[in-house]
Protein backbone atom coordinates (compact mmCIF):
# COMPACT_ATOMS: atom_id res chain seq x y z
CA UNK A 1 0.00 0.00 0.00
CA UNK A 2 1.61 3.29 -1.04
CA UNK A 3 2.17 6.10 1.40
CA UNK A 4 1.18 9.55 0.16
CA UNK A 5 2.05 12.94 1.49
CA UNK A 6 -1.14 14.93 1.73
CA UNK A 7 -1.65 17.92 -0.53
CA UNK A 8 -2.66 20.53 2.00
CA UNK A 9 -1.01 23.37 3.91
CA UNK A 10 2.40 21.90 4.81
CA UNK A 11 5.31 24.16 5.70
CA UNK A 12 7.77 23.72 2.78
CA UNK A 13 10.82 23.19 4.99
CA UNK A 14 8.94 20.56 7.00
CA UNK A 15 7.76 18.86 3.82
CA UNK A 16 11.28 18.75 2.37
CA UNK A 17 12.68 17.38 5.63
CA UNK A 18 10.00 14.68 5.68
CA UNK A 19 10.72 13.77 2.03
CA UNK A 20 14.43 13.40 2.64
CA UNK A 21 13.86 11.39 5.83
CA UNK A 22 11.43 9.03 4.11
CA UNK A 23 13.68 8.50 1.11
CA UNK A 24 16.85 7.87 3.10
CA UNK A 25 16.24 4.12 3.60
CA UNK A 26 15.48 3.62 -0.10
CA UNK A 27 18.38 5.31 -1.77
CA UNK A 28 22.08 5.72 -1.51
CA UNK A 29 21.91 7.86 -4.63
CA UNK A 30 25.42 9.10 -5.02
CA UNK A 31 26.26 8.97 -8.70
CA UNK A 32 29.01 6.64 -9.78
CA UNK A 33 32.44 8.21 -9.59
CA UNK A 34 33.42 5.95 -12.47
CA UNK A 35 30.91 7.73 -14.75
CA UNK A 36 32.94 10.95 -14.61
CA UNK A 37 36.05 9.06 -15.75
CA UNK A 38 34.31 7.64 -18.84
CA UNK A 39 34.44 9.30 -22.27
CA UNK A 40 31.50 11.47 -23.29
CA UNK A 41 29.70 10.13 -26.37
CA UNK A 42 27.33 12.43 -28.27
CA UNK A 43 24.99 12.03 -31.19
CA UNK A 44 22.87 14.78 -32.79
CA UNK A 45 21.67 16.13 -36.12
CA UNK A 46 23.85 19.28 -35.85
CA UNK A 47 26.84 20.43 -33.81
CA UNK A 48 28.53 23.80 -33.26
CA UNK A 49 31.74 23.69 -31.22
CA UNK A 50 33.53 26.81 -29.96
CA UNK A 51 36.77 25.74 -28.28
CA UNK A 52 37.74 29.33 -27.44
CA UNK A 53 34.56 29.94 -25.42
CA UNK A 54 34.39 26.36 -24.13
CA UNK A 55 30.83 25.73 -25.31
CA UNK A 56 29.23 23.29 -27.73
CA UNK A 57 25.66 23.40 -29.03
CA UNK A 58 23.96 20.27 -30.34
CA UNK A 59 20.56 20.19 -32.05
CA UNK A 60 18.14 17.49 -33.14
CA UNK A 61 17.48 14.36 -31.08
CA UNK A 62 20.61 14.86 -28.97
CA UNK A 63 21.90 11.97 -26.86
CA UNK A 64 24.80 12.28 -24.40
CA UNK A 65 26.18 9.15 -22.73
CA UNK A 66 28.95 9.00 -20.13
CA UNK A 67 29.11 5.65 -18.33
CA UNK A 68 25.60 5.06 -16.89
CA UNK A 69 24.70 8.76 -17.33
CA UNK A 70 22.35 9.44 -20.25
CA UNK A 71 20.91 12.88 -21.05
CA UNK A 72 18.64 13.52 -24.04
CA UNK A 73 16.87 16.51 -25.54
CA UNK A 74 16.29 18.56 -28.67
CA UNK A 75 18.85 21.32 -27.97
CA UNK A 76 21.85 20.79 -25.69
CA UNK A 77 24.43 23.41 -24.65
CA UNK A 78 27.55 21.87 -23.11
CA UNK A 79 29.94 24.10 -21.17
CA UNK A 80 33.52 23.08 -20.40
CA UNK A 81 35.90 24.39 -17.75
CA UNK A 82 38.27 26.72 -19.65
CA UNK A 83 41.46 25.49 -17.99
CA UNK A 84 40.94 21.71 -18.07
CA UNK A 85 38.33 21.18 -20.81
CA UNK A 86 36.43 19.04 -18.30
CA UNK A 87 32.64 19.04 -18.45
CA UNK A 88 31.25 21.84 -16.26
CA UNK A 89 27.51 21.93 -16.94
CA UNK A 90 24.83 21.17 -19.51
CA UNK A 91 21.63 23.03 -20.35
CA UNK A 92 19.16 20.97 -22.33
CA UNK A 93 15.67 21.60 -23.67
CA UNK A 94 13.33 19.01 -25.06
CA UNK A 95 9.85 17.62 -25.16
CA UNK A 96 10.93 16.43 -22.62
CA UNK A 97 14.63 16.61 -21.78
CA UNK A 98 15.57 13.42 -19.90
CA UNK A 99 18.20 12.26 -17.42
CA UNK A 100 19.06 8.73 -16.33
CA UNK A 101 21.91 7.52 -14.12
CA UNK A 102 22.61 4.48 -11.97
CA UNK A 103 23.76 5.55 -8.50
CA UNK A 104 26.77 3.85 -6.96
CA UNK A 105 25.75 0.64 -5.15
CA UNK A 106 22.16 0.72 -6.47
CA UNK A 107 20.28 -1.56 -8.83
CA UNK A 108 17.62 1.03 -9.80
CA UNK A 109 18.30 3.99 -12.09
CA UNK A 110 17.29 7.54 -11.18
CA UNK A 111 15.11 8.97 -13.98
CA UNK A 112 14.20 12.61 -14.52
CA UNK A 113 12.37 14.58 -17.17
CA UNK A 114 11.34 18.19 -17.74
CA UNK A 115 11.01 20.62 -20.65
CA UNK A 116 14.22 22.32 -19.44
CA UNK A 117 17.05 20.74 -17.47
CA UNK A 118 20.33 22.01 -16.09
CA UNK A 119 22.94 19.41 -15.13
CA UNK A 120 25.99 20.55 -13.13
CA UNK A 121 28.95 18.19 -12.92
CA UNK A 122 31.29 20.57 -11.07
CA UNK A 123 30.62 22.11 -7.69
CA UNK A 124 27.91 20.18 -5.99
CA UNK A 125 26.70 17.69 -8.64
CA UNK A 126 23.05 18.51 -9.17
CA UNK A 127 20.18 18.66 -11.63
CA UNK A 128 17.65 21.48 -11.92
CA UNK A 129 14.45 20.35 -13.60
CA UNK A 130 12.29 23.25 -14.75
CA UNK A 131 8.87 24.04 -16.21
CA UNK A 132 7.12 20.87 -15.05
CA UNK A 133 9.42 18.19 -13.67
CA UNK A 134 9.39 14.54 -12.65
CA UNK A 135 12.09 12.71 -10.68
CA UNK A 136 11.80 8.97 -10.04
CA UNK A 137 13.78 6.11 -8.56
CA UNK A 138 12.05 2.76 -8.45
CA UNK A 139 8.41 3.68 -7.80
CA UNK A 140 9.18 6.72 -5.61
CA UNK A 141 8.17 9.82 -7.55
CA UNK A 142 8.39 13.61 -7.19
CA UNK A 143 6.44 15.95 -9.48
CA UNK A 144 6.46 19.74 -9.42
CA UNK A 145 7.09 22.88 -11.42
CA UNK A 146 10.75 22.84 -10.35
CA UNK A 147 12.85 20.09 -8.78
CA UNK A 148 16.46 20.43 -7.67
CA UNK A 149 18.20 17.11 -7.09
CA UNK A 150 21.55 17.44 -5.29
CA UNK A 151 23.20 14.21 -6.41
CA UNK A 152 26.12 14.28 -3.98
CA UNK A 153 24.08 15.20 -0.89
CA UNK A 154 21.19 12.91 -1.98
CA UNK A 155 18.65 15.69 -1.40
CA UNK A 156 15.56 16.69 -3.35
CA UNK A 157 13.81 20.06 -3.24
CA UNK A 158 10.54 20.44 -5.11
CA UNK A 159 8.68 23.71 -5.69
CA UNK A 160 5.26 24.53 -7.05
CA UNK A 161 6.44 27.88 -8.42
CA UNK A 162 4.40 31.07 -8.34
CA UNK A 163 1.18 29.31 -9.36
CA UNK A 164 -0.05 27.86 -6.07
CA UNK A 165 -2.72 25.87 -7.96
CA UNK A 166 0.09 23.65 -9.28
CA UNK A 167 1.11 21.81 -6.15
CA UNK A 168 3.95 19.33 -5.83
CA UNK A 169 3.06 15.65 -5.74
CA UNK A 170 5.13 12.98 -4.02
CA UNK A 171 4.61 9.24 -3.86
CA UNK A 172 6.89 7.18 -1.61
CA UNK A 173 6.58 3.44 -1.30
CA UNK A 174 7.63 1.43 1.74
CA UNK A 175 10.77 -0.64 1.36
CA UNK A 176 9.42 -3.84 -0.21
CA UNK A 177 10.20 -6.02 -3.21
CA UNK A 178 9.07 -4.45 -6.52
CA UNK A 179 6.75 -7.39 -7.30
CA UNK A 180 4.57 -6.40 -4.33
CA UNK A 181 4.17 -2.74 -5.40
CA UNK A 182 1.11 -1.56 -7.29
CA UNK A 183 1.23 -0.49 -10.92
CA UNK A 184 0.02 3.05 -10.09
CA UNK A 185 3.27 4.90 -10.94
CA UNK A 186 5.12 2.53 -13.23
Any overview of this molecule?
The chain has 186 residues and is mostly beta strands. It has one domain: Lipopolysaccharide (LPS) transport protein A like domain (lipopolysaccharide transport protein A fold), CATH 2.60.450. The chain is 9% helix and 48% strand. Strands 1, 2, 3, 4, 5, 6, 7, 8, 9, 10, 11, 12 and 13 form a 13-stranded antiparallel sheet that branches.
Identify the notable features of this structure and list them briefly:
disordered C terminus; lipopolysaccharide transport protein A fold; disordered N terminus; mainly beta; 186 residues
Under CATH, the homologous superfamily reads Lipopolysaccharide (LPS) transport protein A like domain
Structural class: mainly beta
Helix/strand order: EHHEEEEEEEEEEEE
Annotated CATH architecture: Sandwich
- Count of domain modules: 1
Rg for CA atoms = 17 Å
Biggest sheet layout = 13 strands, antiparallel
Number of extended strands: 13
Count every helix, treating DSSP H or I runs of 4 or more residues as helices: 2
CATH top-level class: Mainly Beta
Please tell me the overall pLDDT: 80
Strand content: over 45%
Percent in helix: under 10%
As residue ranges, the low-confidence spans are: 1-31, 179-186
Shape: globular
Our measurement of the CA-to-CA distance between the termini, rounded to an integer number of angstroms, reads: 14 Å
CATH topology-level name: lipopolysaccharide transport protein A fold
